[in-house]
Write a structure and sequence with these properties.
The complex is a heterodimer. Chain A is mainly α. Chain A has a two-stranded antiparallel ribbon with strand order 1-2. In chain A, strand 1 and strand 2 form a beta hairpin. Chain A is globular. The model of chain B has no long low-confidence stretch (mean pLDDT about 85). The chains are: A mainly alpha, B alpha+beta.
């Protein structure tokens, strides 16, 4: 067994370009639908219908929203730092798109791997690019020159240090069991049993940390529309605001994708090979629905509560999980 | 020194306290309560939306709902019930009814009584829909209907004339069924 991914497997350049375009197109086709789905579901959770006026069943609502956002002025406050203010919303988009590349949608079929790229360091890459998103929030919030933005940025920094460690440790258990860092290899290792069963604690900790990573309720303190107006996005308008919003959904997609690959058996499922990406999509969709369900249920925590949850409960749990897994893997 | 009638370590009134937050027990309870919350929201999802999508669906009104006024005629003779007594205008707290009475000329009677309302106007932008006019009317000539969709672009259009009030009004509002 090789610990790193098979670096000998190289595809033609044009295949990779086509693949990246397809993944990009697919994801950016799904993201607007996700926003409608979320708004409709949140509505149903509250005895409402949600958007149902624009187009059939309201599915054209995001088109109308984006049209509105584009036509708005890209406002910049006087005391904002120009370059950083502009870079702020771009960094998270970059990190989200980069992270999408490693989500495996299927195995190598007819010489084409159904994933963006199978990086040898796999999951480390996810952590590396995933954390870049927070620089966007921090820089955007700080450079806005507004107290609400600054508070939101501070909160996101406090949030970052309290969940990142547990998140890494939570995945470590699955990595040990899979014997590889590559997501494709980890999915292969789940042929007998999905890792959610032996690694249930890891899955739980990862999902909790995932809520913090995506700035979703109950951990949406950086945004906190009730207290901080919109946190780090307070001063943003137009499509810059839109890209922050887009990133939130992209991150949900990425975290769901990683969770599906690491714990839910990735593309594994009954049926012929061409069904694999659909299975993967179904699993991701299931996790997205869970994200929405939780958002409809839980109120926002204070950030000291998140920190004590992260340091006092998630970190010991994840560490214990890693230790037990390591011992069991060595013994058996 | 005053003697307190209670011991230092005892509450004066019985206080209901939840379990101490934090710790393993707190985490366990938080997890349980989270699951309970998820169950609650899912139950709401299953119940389905309660929204009445207004322009297409309408809330049924009760039989005694006080909406747009109607003036009535006798069904057999076709004469107006209103005799122009102005009692409705006198009862109106918003002072939105204007009645000008005129004598009936034999041969071309308009109402059953001695006089009739030559002008009968209700200013709907003033009306508070209290229904006093309906109560004040000795001949049941004016009643409150069920229609409430009277929005308009022009204030002048909100002054309803006698012809408009006498005309068979469009029933745009569903009536609440028994037990609804």
């Amino acid at each position: 067994m090789h610990v790193l991914a098979d670096t000998q497997f190289v595809e033609a350049t044009w295949i990779m370009i086509v693949k990246s375009l397809v993944i990009f197109g697919l994801v950016f086709g799904i993201l607007p639908l996700m926003t409608v789905l979320e708004r409709k579901l949140i509505g149903r959770f509250q005895h409402r219908y949600g958007p149902n006026r624009v187009g059939p069943f309201g599915i054209l609502q995001p088109l109308a929203d984006v049209g509105k956002l584009i036509s708005k002025e890209s406002f910049r406050p006087d005391n904002a730092i120009r370059t950083l203010f502009v870079i702020g919303p771009l960094l998270p988009v970059l990190s989200g798109v980069l992270a999408l590349a490693i989500i495996p949608w299927g195995d190598v079929q007819d010489g084409v791997g159904l994933y963006g790229i199978d990086v040898p360091i796999g999951i480390l890459y996810f952590f590396a690019v995933g954390s870049i998103a927070f620089y966007g929030l921090l820089l955007g919030g700080w450079s806005s020159g507004s107290k609400y933005s600054l508070l939101g940025a501070m909160r996101s920094a406090a949030q970052l240090i309290s969940y990142e460690v547990s998140m890494g440790l939570a995945l470590l258990g699955a990595i040990i069991m899979g014997g590889s860092l590559s997501l494709v290899d980890i999915v292969h290792a789940q042929g007998e049993i999905w890792f959610i069963v032996p690694q249930f604690v890891g899955f739980l900790v990862f999902m909790l940390a995932g809520f913090a990573e995506t700035n979703r309720t109950p951990f949406d303190m950086p945004e906190a529309d009730a207290e901080l107006v919109q946190g780090f996005m307070t001063e943003y308008g137009g499509m810059r605001f839109g890209s922050f919003l887009l990133v939130e959904y992209m991150e949900i997609m990425v975290v769901s994708g990683i969770a599906a690959a690491m714990f839910l058996g990735g593309w594994m499922g009954p049926g012929p090979g061409w069904l694999d990406p659909i299975w993967m999509l179904a699993k991701i969709l299931g996790l997205i629905l869970f994200f929405i369900w939780v958002r409809a249920t839980l109120p926002r925590l204070r950030y000291d509560q998140l920190m004590s949850l992260g340091w006092k409960i998630l970190l010991p749990l994840a560490t214990l999980n890693v230790l037990v897994t390591a011992v069991l893997v060595v013994v058996t | 020194m005053t003697e307190f009638p209670y011991l230092d370590d005892q509450d004066v009134v019985e206080v209901q306290r939840g379990p101490e937050p934090g710790g393993i027990g707190g985490a366990y309870r938080a997890f349980g309560e989270t699951l309970r919350g998820l169950k609650t929201t899912m139950a709401r999802l299953i119940e389905g939306p309660l929204t009445i999508q207004y322009p297409e669906e309408k809330t049924p009104v009760y039989p005694r709902f006080r909406g747009r006024h109607k003036l009535h005629r006798f069904e057999d003779t076709g004469l107006e019930k209103c005799v122009g007594c102005s009692l409705c205008a006198a009862a109106c707290p918003a002072d939105c009814i204007r009645v000008v009475a005129a004598e009936n000329i034999p041969g071309e009677r308009v109402s059953a009584g001695e006089r009739y309302a030559a002008v009968y106007e209700i200013n709907m932008s003033r009306c508070i829909f209290c229904g006093y006019c309906e109560i004040a009317c000795p001949f049941d000539a004016i009643t409150m209907g069920h229609d409430y969709e009277m929005a308009d672009y022009d204030r002048d259009d909100l002054i309803f004339t006698k012809e408009m009030l006498l005309a068979e009004s469009v029933e745009r509002t569903p009536l609440r069924a028994e037990g609804e």
